[in-house]
């Protein structure tokens, strides 16, 4: 089922990428995105040959959501009050995801 449903979509995507590449400057944002997908095509399609690899990335997204939802010390406004409220042991995290310690 994986090959039957995904192969046509991947084929259309690859054809579109190949059609778009000559239309965009390589150093522009679209050119960079097209170059990225071309360079990463094999890793992006590896799930087609290995049924143990999930088609979705729900587990990865869920793991990252824990870090993203938690308070990030790098995204606080310049308000000292907000900073003081965010620095609670066990609640504040650095951008790397390491547990920050409150002073």
Strand arrangement within the widest β-sheet reads: 1-2
Separation, N- and C-terminal Cα atoms: 55 Å
The count of strands amounts to: 2
Order of helices and strands: HHHHEHE
Q: Helix tally?
A: 5
Structural class: mainly alpha
**Rg:** 21 Å
| Largest sheet features | 2 strands, parallel
Q: What's the pLDDT, averaged over the residues?
A: 77
Overall geometry comes to flat
Spans with pLDDT under 50 lasting ≥5 residues? 94-103
Amount of helix: 40-55%
Fraction in beta strands: under 5%
How many domains is the backbone divided into?
Answer: 2
Write the SSE topology.
Elements: H1 2-20, H2 29-39, H3 41-45, H4 58-69, E1 71-72, H5 80-86, E2 92-93
Parallel strand pairs: 1-2
Please outline what is shown here.
With 103 residues, this protein is mostly helical. It has helices at residues 2-20, 29-39, 41-45, 58-69, 80-86, and strands at residues 71-72, 92-93. The chain has a two-stranded parallel sheet.
Give your account of this protein's structure:
This protein is mainly alpha-helical. It folds into 2 domains: 2-48, no CATH class; 58-93, no CATH class. The protein is built from 5 helices and 2 strands. The protein has helices at 2-20, 29-39, 41-45, 58-69, 80-86, and strands at residues 71-72, 92-93. A two-stranded parallel sheet has the order 1-2. β1, α5 and β2 (92-93) form a beta-alpha-beta unit. The longest helix is centred in the first third of the chain and has 19 residues, at 2-20. Mean pLDDT is 77; it is low at 94-103.
């Amino acid at each position: 089922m994986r090959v039957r449903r995904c192969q046509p979509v991947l084929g259309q995507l690859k054809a579109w990428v190949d059609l778009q590449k000559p239309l965009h400057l390589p150093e522009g944002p679209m050119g960079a995105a097209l170059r990225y997908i071309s360079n990463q095509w094999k890793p992006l399609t590896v799930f087609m040959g290995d049924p143990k690899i999930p088609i979705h990335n729900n587990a990865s997204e869920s793991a990252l959501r824990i870090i993203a939802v938690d308070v990030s010390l790098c995204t606080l406004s310049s308000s000292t009050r907000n900073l003081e409220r965010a620095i609670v042991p066990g609640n504040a995290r650095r951008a790397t995801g390491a547990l920050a310690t409150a002073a």
